[in-house]
Amino acid sequence: MQQTIKQSFSLSGICLHSGKESNIIVHPAPANTGIKFKRVDLNIPSEQKIIDTSITNIVSSKLCTSIQNKYFHRVNTIEHLMSAFHGLGVDNALVDIDSDEVPILDGSSKKYVEKIDQVGLKLLKSQRRFVKILKPLIYGDTDSYIKIMPSDYLSIDYTIIYSHKLIKEQNLFYEFFNSNSYKELISSSRTFGFKEEVDILRKGGLIKGGSIDNAIVLDSNGLLNKDELRFQDEFVRHKILDLIGDLFLFNCSPIGHVEVYCGGHSLTHELLKMIISDQSNWKYVDKLDLPNSSQTTFRSDKEVSAII
Predict the structure, then answer these.
(1) Exposed, middle or buried: residue 199 (CB in 10 Å: 0-12, 13-18, 19+)?
(2) 146 pLDDT higher than 80
(3) Are 208 and 19 in contact (CB under 8 A)?
(4) More confident residue, 85 or 17
(5) Which residues does the annotation mark as catalytic?
(6) What is the CATH number of domain 3-123?
(7) Class of 130-300 in CATH
(8) Percent of the chain at pLDDT above 90?
């Protein structure tokens, strides 16, 4: 069945790109309403403040996911909050926000997950639905691509390659069957960047709020953060965190196997648009055919398995 949160919660913090303070209040919402953002800072009619999360509302943005309604009001950097909703099974919620960007917090979805766990989830009386992928699709080229194939559940095979000695090539295979796997393996992985890129991005009006408090920052010598990596492969885990958030722009969970090679938000957005452009690519279903109970298989580099 569909779920929402049992009661409202609030969070505040700096925005990664604007550098401004942002406050959100997440409210329970009725079945079949999905995830909606409300720009409470705007002095406009109430209906114009609502921005639905949907693939058709995606707008061009750099280094984040942004959505915009038909009145041209937008909200940016929604991927970590959307990832927490998807990972924990929150189908419906209304997010009041007093700026055009969601706070970055610690650079992961960990604090969102903790708040959702704190208030708890409420079952609703409507059946949850899923988007089942019906045929293979790919977007990109040999240097960077994302593809999705039919499957009985959501799985992700993600590869990144960087020249930095702490990253190099990282691969993670993740099968998403339950919220515990998301909380334990994905949610605390932080966004990351390179010191030499910071000045360039800031001159372009981006990452004004970025710091070692909300991101992993690397220079040629290694890690600038005082604390250590939360996982040896935290970099690729964060890429999966972002992907899980972007996939929830269907307003329900997709059923398919996703393979990504050196990808990011833009590639994912283009694949999502490709999927919905043709009704023969997908259909709605209301159940999953999961292998043996609710175990989660997790393989990283040396094919290490963990069951949650």
Answers:
(1) exposed
(2) yes
(3) yes
(4) 85
(5) 265
(6) 3.30.230.20
(7) alpha beta
(8) 75
- Residue 104 pLDDT level (bands cut at 50, 70, 90): very high
Domain coordinates in residue numbering, the chain: 3-123, 130-300
The answer to whether residues 123 and 245 touch, using CB atoms and an 8 Å cutoff, is no
The Cα 293–Cα 79 span in angstroms is 29
Is the pTM higher than 0.85? The answer reads: yes
**Chain position carrying tokens 């959702």:** 116
Structure tokens at 146: 């994302």
The token pair that represents 191 in the structure block: 């966004």
